[in-house]
Amino acid sequence: MPRVAAIDCGTNSIRLLVADVTTRDDGTSWLRDVHREQRVVRLGQGVDATGTLNPEALERTRAALVDYTAILRRKGAESVRMVATSATRDASNRDDFFGMTEAVLGVPAEVISGDEEAALAFTGAVGDLDPEDGPFLVVDVGGGSTELVLGTWDGVKATPKAARSTDIGCVRITERCLRSDPPTADEIAQARELAGQVLQAAFDVVPVHEARTWIGVAGTATTMAAIALGLPEYDSDAIHLSRIAKQKLVATSEDLLKLDHDQRAANPVIHPGRVDVLGGGSLIFQVLAERLTSVDELVVSEHDILDGIALAQL
Hints:
The chain is α/β, with parallel strands linked by helices. The protein contains 13 helices and eleven strands. Helix 2 runs parallel beside helix 4 (about 95-105).
């Protein structure tokens, strides 16, 4: 069986998946994890304001890639694909990033469009779901952008119907609006208005009212699930395919926004690199929960764009 590797470099984190590809009797493929990890490098720190990648952020990313390259060699990955998303799409000095990544990894990073990012996240997210529960709305709240994609899954093929990438994520909404610790009521209101405006533009393209199942992927969704479930520590197995009622999701966000940095940091399920931006990301989910009228809960998946990137290599 081939062993493939996927690297997703976003605004807040860089993540690695090494997986073996297995073919079922019906000819479809599935992934068996060999190694999966993430590092919070905050590549997009300040990009929204300056339009450039910070040298310190580039160095944090380089250090993570050095470690990932060593893992790839030890694990014997036969092919590697690295994609870069929101932060690098928007940076004027992204050639510095490209040169660094190719020098370290040995293969060029690809900057993908927001729509491709959404499609890959959808492919990765729906594979463990019952096709009868579709259409599915997959939402990926990243650091610099939020992707929404509606589509179907027939048990063999994932088919996105409509997708939109928006220029708002947990890092951007925090840097733009939530400057106090904890944020003030006025800041939260400003952030809610911004999120509502941006998401409404996506709703005009993606017919979200057709969704029968709402799926949340990536770190904001999985961390909110860990908090909502009351887990004593982060547990991927407990989080994957957990179901969080919309009312519980909204309450979790409201509680997070009342906490200061030290109070959030004291929760063992919150990654240290996510402590300062989780409230902003949760607010995006809060606005979504209030506006998505065709669903009652959020299904949280640990499988996402990384899995989509790996499967796209076949």
